[in-house]
Here is the input.
Amino acid sequence: MDFWDSVLRMLSALGIVLALMMVVVAIARRMIGTRSGAAADAPLVRVLSTGYLGPKKSISVVSVAGDLLIIGTTATDVIPLGRVRNAERIGQLAPHAASAELKRTVEAGIWIP
Here is the structure.
């Protein structure tokens, strides 16, 4: 009888601790929420277009926190190649973009500095 009382106490204590942990996690998620200043469904980093130069070598247009970056990638490295700041230049890139996402982004005027 003493053994089963001990098991019952242990399981109830475990249940209470797990319930408290779940409550703390729920409160933390509500308090922290999403990134400040960013929409909940908008990713912070987005690959808009990629062109492949050879095996394991490519050039990508990437949106990072509202900036349009051009990066080169290899199997082991990521190399920053430049940043597009000029709205006219972005307009020139859009018609030749391989990605419909890049075209929609430029047409929406999101990248105008």
Strands lie at 45-54, 57-64, 67-73, 78-84. The chain has a mean pLDDT of 76. The radius of gyration is 25 Å.
